[in-house]
């Protein structure tokens, strides 16, 4: 009895409580891995809406970044320490997700921030329901379907990254050689760190690239191109902030609700992969239905909360799943330290102001490698199944229709506005619908069965 009451101090025990000295280096790794990714989606959205009727003041743009930090910390804590079966009780880091960017951009351009957060709240409710039903619908999203969706997400983000590399929306020096120089230097640094770096350098490759790009931008701003950078947001930002309820007036446009709901269903199924990777890599077992359900329900709850407080949608972070698999450190108390550090950053608007001072070309150079990795993750999922004629048809048509129709806006001008938003707001939605339906209606055939059919035809 006394033995059972002794707390474990192991890093490799889910309920372990190792010392701070042992925990902090791993907790810092998780922070470095998620920090940039957690802020970039907010920067992408706020910069994309510059110059439109929905542009917001810089202090509000900083707040969106800070709110994302708050919600990421709370979402992580809820995953670590579930409440009423909401949460996975696993070493999972949550953060603002790149996967939603294509949808957020289109909804934002059409309906502004109120439409984005209103649709997000609805999507969060849908995710909670999916969490309850995940055991029944999971079979409809095999790797051939989820992989095509992830592939399309990556492909649809490339124009965003290229626009950033050229200077981004509102840049008076858009397309200049200085922007391209900085973007390419950042990209090279990220690649070198990823391919040749070790330890923290490899883990924080994107952060290192952004720091190098920022320093180079400071030099260019001071010597060759004054005005290349702006420090207005850093100077004006306060030292302390707190979450504010309903910072934007919510709206609930029907097209945005349907579009976001589909995206949340897709992302919920993708979360199954991250939870599975966490348990297999860190705990050498498959996840339980309760862990998967709790994780998705948790994300739904936090998405609703995020929408109310002005934070963009969250998701499980695959890069942090990779750290768990690599280090085998699964003690939840370690990731609790990470969550606390994220939360503290959320209270300091100067942090958000500093993020907004980063030239868009720096962000472009750093994120294009992230988007490329998303694309390759999709390809990896797809190729985990046999590339039979049937599966190749599903993938090919999904990508062709998803990317093709959205890239020719004039082709859908005559459609009803609601139909147009659902089917053309993002290639991700259309590709998802296409591959989902085709996977259900096309008869399942293996490579061996297709080969047998061809041999039979030759013998006739």
SSE map:
Blueprint: H1 20-48, H2 58-80, E1 94-96, H3 101-137, H4 143-165, H5 177-196, H6 200-203, H7 205-223, H8 232-236, H9 254-283, H10 289-309, E2 314-316, H11 318-327, H12 332-346, H13 349-356, H14 360-383, H15 389-406, H16 417-424, H17 427-441, H18 447-459
Antiparallel strand pairs: 1-2
Helix pairs in contact: 1-2, 1-3, 1-11, 1-12, 2-10, 2-12, 2-13, 3-9, 3-10, 4-14, 4-15, 4-17, 5-7, 5-14, 7-14, 9-10, 9-11, 9-16, 15-17
Commentary on this structure:
It is built from 18 helices and 2 strands. The chain has helices at residues 20-48, 58-80, 101-137, 143-165, 177-196, 200-203, 205-223, 232-236, 254-283, 289-309, 318-327, 332-346, 349-356, 360-383, 389-406, 417-424, 427-441, 447-459; strands at 94-96, 314-316. Strands 1-2 form a two-stranded antiparallel sheet. The N and C termini lie far apart (76 Å).
Mean pLDDT: 84
Fraction of residues in β-strands: under 5%
**Beta strand count:** 2
Q: Write down the Rg.
A: 22 Å
* Helical content band: over 70%
Biggest beta sheet summary: 2 strands, antiparallel
* C-alpha end-to-end distance: 76 Å
Q: Give the SSE order as H and E letters.
A: HHEHHHHHHHHEHHHHHHHH
List low-confidence stretches.
Answer: none
Strand order of the largest sheet: 1-2
* Inertia-based shape: globular
The number of distinct helices, counting runs of at least 4 residues, comes to 18
Helix vs. strand class: mainly alpha
